[in-house]
Amino acid sequence: MALQSKLASILGVLTSLLLTFIGLTAITFVIGRMMPADPVLAIVGDRASQEVYDQVYLHLGLDKPVYIQYLRYLEQLVEGDLGTSIMTAQPVLDDIIRFFPATLELATVATLLGIFVGIPMGVLAAVHQGRWPDHIVRVISLIGYSAPIFWLGMVALLVFYANLGWVAGPGRLDVYFDGIVEPVTGVLMIDAAMSGEWDIFYNALSHLVLPASILGTFALAYIARMTRSFMLDQLSQEYILTARVKGMPEYKVIWGHAFRNVLVQLITIIGLTYASLLEGSVLTETVFSWPGIGQYITNSLFNNDMNAVLGGTIVVGACFVGINMLSDLLYRLVDPRIR
Amino acid sequence: MSTEATLRGWLLAEIPKSKLQARCQRVFIGWLDFKRNPIAMIGLLIVLGLLVIAALAPWITTSDGLELHLADRLKPPSSEHWFGTDELGRDIFDRIIWGSRITLYIVALVTIIVVPIGLLIGTVAGYMGGWVDTVLMRLTDIFLAFPRLILAMALVAVLGRGLENAVLAIALTTWSPFARIARAEALTIRNSEFILAAQMQGISTVGILARHVTPLCMSSVIVRLTLDMAGIILTAAGLGFLGLGAQPPTPEWGAMISLGRQYLIDQWWVPTIPGIAILVVSLGFNLLGDGLRDVFDPKSGN
Amino acid sequence: MTDSTLLSVEDLHVTYNTPTGLVRAVSGVSFELGREKLGIVGESGSGKSQTGRAILGLTATGGTVSARRLEFKSTDLLNASERTMRQIRGGGISMIMQDPKYSLNPVLTVGYQIEEALLVHNRTSKRVARERTYEMLRAVKIREPKRVYKAYPHEVSGGMGQRIMIAMMMIPEPDIIIADEPTSALDVTVQLQVLAVLDDMISERGMGLIFISHDLNLIASFCDRILIMYDGRVVEECTAAELDRAQHPYTRGLVNCLPRLDGGQDELSVLKRDPSWLTTPGATR
User: Fold this and answer.
1) Residue B249: cis peptide before it, omega within 30 degrees of 0
2) ipTM
3) What is the DSSP letter of B268?
4) Distance of CA B275 to CAs A35, A93, A239, Å?
5) Does the distance separating the beta carbons of A238 and C99 come in below 8 Å?
6) Is C46:C74 a contact under the CB 8 Å cutoff?
């Protein structure tokens, strides 16, 4: 019985996902059609004959009513056809696949930082509410999500790279090492480790540290703040008194009881964080010249490569929606109260 | 008895004698509550400071921040140029002050677009229920599920670069939470007796929504708006940084950082100081928002 | 102090420092508890719950506890180390709270929570702990212990939840149990069941009980001795049988407020509060 209702709620979430995704594509479709530039001219050039123009016009299906165009668009999306990039003359999808792992690498490391530093910070602040650990955590947290992330990145580059020389500079790898490692997963560090090229590994690491830390600070600030809020809420509940009445040591009360209740809510928060880091990386990548999807979209934008921009938007948007849905699903599976 | 004492007495009277007095009393008591929180007061000061600086700009600055003085380019902070000069010799202090007007402009513009749309959609959805609710909420969820910056970028790509387009793009991705809040409120009071009374009086749906439902949403909306404002300012700065917002020579803080980026190492003040300005304003709105939330909704974790 | 006295409380004070001034939750409460059922009756704010928490050393932050004597089986509770207190909590003195919806951890199974109470005080294997948990569930008249063991708090009814609470608090075999409004959140029919279970276990194990409630009738029928509290102090102490002959005006007021099935009243009397009750030191026998 419980399984049935669980399946029903999972189905509900998936339907939601589908509808949201359709909405996403509708919006990008509309944006694409809003382009002031003539899509046909973009392909044939302005010196083409009327014949060629007409041919391409029909080929693109621009004579058909809007909803048929939209359906065609959806069809193409499902087949993985995101159009061709004007810049690189490659299918947009291929370009995106090439650039995506870099962003994933950045976002993943940053989220992990946010989790493993942010959560303990939040718990610490809640347990010592009103005293100095709480104040320190709140200040760090506040600065972390009030600061413009690109500015923070620049200042960090100035201090840690230019002045202190502790880490490597912009880019993913020193030019010296470029192209040596075979891209298997696309994640440089894993690839380098796999082929035993340890100096490349360390070089990649030192390039990753700063941008990941900057993005991570943002993640950390948000996670710490939410964890603190959730913990404070739980610590004022009656079952905490019960746990203490049983004679449990304080650390068990905090982590075994209060935190267990917070964990469920944190899943949603972590999902949200990861998703927003995917788009936060746009700015970080620009500052650190990190060749990820953020840079890709930005560059395409400046080159008026609309297919690339929209393709990138759809992919990032889809990931965003997907991650949020995934964390929602996970939440329902883990919380015993939702059954 | 002094006027201050009479005013205070009027504000603290046990039984208000008019609607105006009741309203003022509520605001006053909320203010007393708010005052007790020093951190929130700092936030308020910063935001007020922003308003004051923007208003007094013509009197505080020595130039309009737009003129070029190539002979003075890239000078470090000094008594003559408090924040130094940028790559075109413009006084950075002046540009920051003028830039505060742009920041306020962004805040105002987004508010004007986002709040009415959010309130309208939310109250209608919550009050009418049924398929209207479902459709509107689906719409809201779609926009809510969007990555804000990326969508803004795509919109700007199409609409063209410029401050207004950037603001429009931001507004389109920011209205969703307000619709949700308004809907939640509308749902809660939909079946209340006073709504029933209003309906029986023959007040139209529009009238009910406007005069009864909407005012009740306002406090939550204001809190949420203030809290989101920091994020909006950061997104606008981000767009400016990418060159998609206000175009040169407008002294928008994000654009200033972008233009000054190449001088980061030797003339650090050029890109760094605008960033500090953004940080301070964003911080101000966050602190203010936190403080307001504590006054209106004290059980959320503080 | 005689051999059978488990708990001695002398001149207990619990004060809170609030922005609006000093709040005296408990002002000079004294009593002794042996292996008997003591009821503490009072209205909200009389300090009865605060007394219970103070005994366990679990007064909320901001509160200060002081007393001339606070002893449990010759251990000084006032100056005991946190370690000692943790041993006493659960193992010596335990507490049952009002509403199992809130007093049980919603994301842990019932069985886990009961086992936990045992394992904190006894180093046994998991298997033994589980067996003891089943035993305990049976002892509180829960018929399918294995099924309930795996259940979550929101899946059981109020009455069952309270019995689970009782099981959880009794499993480490304390000497005293404090029951803070244990039946106030339950339906009347279920109340009797839960009280019956509680009564059985206390008699079997020869424990001491402090029953805190606002329900004078309930306490009069359930307990041996009664303490009446008003505004942080004890205004009357008597045995349940002597309640009719109570002397303090507040107690008389409370007794008279109770509607009687054998009739004779046209109007229920209303309790009139006399400010002098606030200043007279607690009357004792």
Assistant:
1) yes
2) 0.88
3) T
4) 33, 35, 46
5) yes
6) no
Contact A337/C at CB under 8 A: yes
Between A and B, how many residue pairs show a Cβ–Cβ distance under 8 A?
144
Indicate the residue of B145, B147, B283 with minimum beta-carbon distance to A142.
B283
Name every chain A residue with its beta carbon within 8 A of the beta carbon of C58. 241, 244-245
State the average pLDDT over residues C249-271.
71
Please tell me if residue B146 touches chain A, with a CB cutoff of 8 Å. Answer: yes
Phi, psi of A85 (to 5 degrees): -75, 135
Per-residue pLDDT, C284: 41
Question: What distance in Å separates the CA atoms of residue A104 and residue A293, rounded to the nearest whole number?
Answer: 9
Chains that touch B (3 or more CB pairs under 8 A): A
Q: Which two tokens stand for residue C252?
A: 């008389």
Question: pLDDT higher for C149 or B18?
Answer: C149
Pairing verdict, β C21-33 and C75-76: unpaired
Are A238 and C91 inside 8 Å of each other by CB? no
Selected for mutation to probe chain C from A246, A252, A335, A338 (highest C CB count within 10 Å) is A246
Dist. CA B134–CA B131, nearest whole Å: 5
Least trusted range by pLDDT, from A271-280, B24-33, C59-68, C183-192 = B24-33
User: For the residues of C142-192, what is the DSSP string, one character each?
Assistant: -S-HHHHHT--GGGS-HHHHHHHHHHHHHTT--SEEEEESTTTTS-HHHHH
- Tens of pLDDT, residue by residue over A18-28, are 877 788 788 77
Q: Which residues of chain B register pLDDT less than 70?
A: 1-2, 65, 297-302
Q: Half-sphere exposure (CA, 13 Å, Cβ side) for C285?
A: 12
Residue C95 and residue A248: Cβ atoms within 8 Å? no
User: Residue C280 — pLDDT band, cuts 50, 70, 90?
Assistant: low
Number of Cβ atoms within 10 Å of the Cβ of A42: 16
Residues A38-59 have pLDDT tens digits of 666 666 666 777 887 777 777 7
DSSP codes joined into one string, B140-158? HHHHHTS-HHHHHHHHHHH
Least Cα separation, residue C102 to chain A (angstroms): 6
B26-56 b/e (C-beta count within 10 Å ≥ 16 → b): eeeeeeeebeebebbeebbebbeebeebbee
Which of B138, B230, B243 faces A146 most closely, judged by CB atoms? B230
Q: Which residue has the tokens 């233009």?
A: B259
Contact (Cβ atoms closer than 8 angstroms) between residue B144 and residue B231? no
Tokens 């949403």 belong to B217
- Per cent of chain A over pLDDT 70 is 91
Q: At what angle do helices C82-91 and C48-56 cross, to 10 degrees?
A: 120
CB contacts, 8 Å: A337 with chain C:
106-107, 152, 154
Closest residue to A162, CB basis, from B147, B156, B265: B265
Cβ–Cβ gap A247/C88 under 8 Å:
yes
Among the partner-chain residues A238, A247, A261, the one whose CB lies closest to the CB of C86 is: A247
Contact A148 B282 (CB under 8 A): yes
Question: Would you say C180 and C20 are in contact if contact means Cβ atoms under 8 Å apart?
Answer: no
